[in-house]
Specification:
The complex is a heterodimer. Helices cover 94% and strands 0% of the residues of chain A. Chain A contains 2 helices and no strands. Chain B is mostly helical. The chains are: A mainly alpha, B mainly alpha.
């Protein structure tokens, strides 16, 4: 029961050493290797993710800068266009005003010329009418009623001629 | 056959076979059972660790990894960083003792019931402790450590060199041997029901506890040697 023989004792030591090498190589070695590989992969994935994030942030900053530049450029273009449009508008309005004034001036001149021509025509008509009436009065005896009728006719003709020339 | 003789017969370690060299080398049952344990563990390890992958591991791999990590943490929890190189050895011993101490459940005599096994384990552990000390402190530092903290402790420290393995092996042997004796006695007195219930304590709980105690003490000694 409590006997001690060296052969079996040495066998037990060898057995324990064999078990140790088996466990170390095939169990702890494999498991620790897999865990270490996985850690390495996770670290690598984190490093890649960090790198991609940094690149994305840099791209975003660049994009924002480009956007700001574009906004600035857009503002400048709009300001320039507005200024050009204002200048052109001023020119167009100036030209239109000048043309309008010219047209009005010409129209006034024409109106004035027509008016003077009409006045001359009117004077001539009155003159002819007076001459006509005078020649009639001088050429025939006229009754009181005929005389009165003649005056009325003259006056109506004179009034009609005057009104037409005023227009 | 009376109870004492029957018990005596149960505690004997029979010879399994004899190697016909010279006057014949007797190989006892403990060594053969240990071979069987090693073979079974080897096959289990090969099957369980087959096709391990780093991504999307299966349930088997997750369980094996969790078990190994748990065992390594259990052993290394009371060891400094410098002593972590000895964790695989201690885990192997924990595995072997865990299986050896609980094999009584299958009505097989535990190898740790044999004094040769516990002496071999204790001797290997204490040699490892001294190797750890020499590797860390060099030979001069290791020799000086026997006279620490004061010179007068030299005989005590030299004595400790023998006491530590002796306590390790005797504690393990005594517990497993006692559990075996108690279980045999119970089986003789009450052959049914009671042995099954008590087997859970003496073979399973006590066996695993003693395996942990052996490894825990060895890890403490190694840690002490490298500090």
């Amino acid at each position: 029961m409590l006997s001690f023989d060296p052969v079996n004792f040495i066998c037990m030591i060898i057995n324990i050493l064999i078990l140790f090498f088996i466990a170390k190589k095939f169990l702890f070695g494999r498991v620790n290797e897999i865990i270490a590989k996985r850690d390495e992969e996770i670290k690598s994935a984190y490093a890649t993710a960090d790198k991609v994030t940094r690149e994305a942030q840099a791209d975003r900053r660049e994009y924002q800068m480009q956007l700001a530049e574009l906004e600035k450029e857009k503002g400048e273009i709009l300001d320039k266009a507005r200024q050009e449009a204002d200048a052109e508008k001023g020119d167009i309005i100036g030209k239109a005003n000048a043309e309008t004034e010219e047209i009005i001036r010409k129209a006034r001149e024409e109106a004035s010329r027509i008016k003077s021509v009409a006045e001359i025509d009117h004077d001539k008509q009155v003159e002819e009418l007076v001459f006509d009436v005078a020649s009639r009065l001088a050429g025939q005896a006229i009754s009181k009623e005929a005389n009165s009728e003649l005056y009325d006719k003259f006056l109506s003709q004179a009034t009609g001629s005057g009104t037409g020339s005023d227009r | 056959m009376d109870l004492a003789e029957e018990l005596q017969a149960e505690l004997e370690i029979p010879t399994a076979f004899t190697i016909p060299i010279g006057s014949g080398i007797a190989i006892n049952q403990t060594v053969v059972i240990t071979w069987c344990i090693i073979a079974v563990l080897f096959i289990c390890i090969l099957i369980l660790t087959r096709g391990f992958v780093t991504q999307n591991p299966g349930k088997r791999q997750v369980l094996v990894e969790a078990f190994v990590v748990w065992m390594q943490n259990l052993v290394s929890s009371n060891m400094s960083e410098k002593a972590h190189a000895y964790v695989p050895y201690l885990c192997s011993i924990l595995l072997f003792l865990g299986v050896s101490n609980t094999i009584g459940i299958f009505n097989i005599a535990p190898p740790t019931k044999d004094l040769r096994t516990t002496v071999a384990l204790a001797l290997m552990s204490i040699v490892l402790v001294q190797i750890a000390g020499i590797r860390e402190k060099k030979v001069s530092g290791w020799l000086k450590s026997f006279a620490q903290p004061i010179g007068v402790m030299l005989p005590m420290n030299i004595l400790e060199l023998f006491i530590k393995p002796l306590s390790l092996c005797m504690r393990l042997f005594g517990n497993i041997f006692a559990a075996f004796v108690i279980m045999e006695l119970i089986k003789m007195v009450v052959p049914v029901v009671l042995p099954a219930a008590l087997c859970l304590y003496f073979d399973l709980f006590d066996g695993l506890l003693q395996a942990y105690v052996f490894v825990f003490l060895t890890s403490l000694y190694i840690n002490e040697a490298v500090e």
